[in-house]
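Look over this record before class:
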Amino acid sequence: MSNRGPLNIALIGAGNISGQYLDTLGTFPDVRLTAIGDLDVSRAHTAARKYHVPEAGDPESVLALPDVELIVNLTVPAAHTEVALASLRAGKHVYGEKPLALSPRDGARILAEAQACGLRVGCAPDTFLGAGLQSAQRALQAGAIGEPVSASAVLQGPGPDAWHPSPAFFYAPGAGPLFDMGPYYLTALVALLGPVTRVAATARTARSRRVAASGATFPVEVPTHLHTLLDFANGPSATATFSFDSPEPRSLLEITGTEGTLSLPDPNTFAGPLRIRRFEDDDWRPLPVHGTTAGRGLGVLDMARALRTGQEHRASGELALHVLETMTMITEAAETHATAHVTPWHSTLRPLPDDWNPTASTLTADLRPSASPRPGT
């Protein structure tokens, strides 16, 4: 494999989300899409033809390709661990869709395997690398609302039953509103406020079965409405609601500090708006939003560039494992009606440089890594 120039990547999983990645990754000159794999081989070939990807086949054949350096794992949550471990054992770095795994134990297994193989793990969501949340991070660091004190997060709606062609997996272990949508909100909060230390929660399931748009019914195996309290190591606290039981879609993410409140964009997007209201203000006012709104795959690109230069990538396996453990502890707290503690995690997520441009090539044939890739993250 080359250790310079664009990074050769392959996708495993050609389902509903893959199109969003393929639309974006094809615009980045620092990565090269070489293959698509899926258990449904015909679906892999269809996607490969549409996006002009040279190779397609089943997952095993894609993992056997010698030029592939990084696997983008877009399988359903129940397969995340199996595919990640297989990718690492095939000598490939891996970047996965969220959640990292179904359990912190399996997530830790993935990171341990990466460490043993001298490889890296990355994981969605990467929306915190978009212009909206990056601008929020810069505003907080500049003291726009003083010292952060508290945060509020709300994700509610009727669930994906009406629009997704196969919605049953959204109500299976590893999904539900917490594991499916929670990572966007929790990752944004961790990126902006630091790691979570403890949680308390309540949870309900409104209906034991759901109906897909096709008319088929399927069981609900996870809570569909959760309220949680979170404490952060740096001092702030937050309240969060995650629900698939409301007829009204709603997204809210706010951070309040000693000098005012910052209203953030939907953390499942890459753009604004970003607003602020300080105590002396009569109303909300907009803040400038700078950065990229390219879409899903920014974390893959940041990881590819980091692999070539020996720097740390931002949407890391460690961050994803912390968010996964936080969600697991929220579930445990709801079941036991007791406060649950989250394993301490110590990291500061660097904002992207102001001149970070996903569509400008930074990896040329003459570039040599400045250091060996840092394994296991």
Notes: Residues 366-377 have pLDDT under 50 and may be disordered. The CA atoms of residues 7 and 31 lie 5 Å apart. The two ends are 20 Å apart (CA to CA). The domain at 131-286 is CATH 3.30.360.10 (Dihydrodipicolinate Reductase; domain 2).
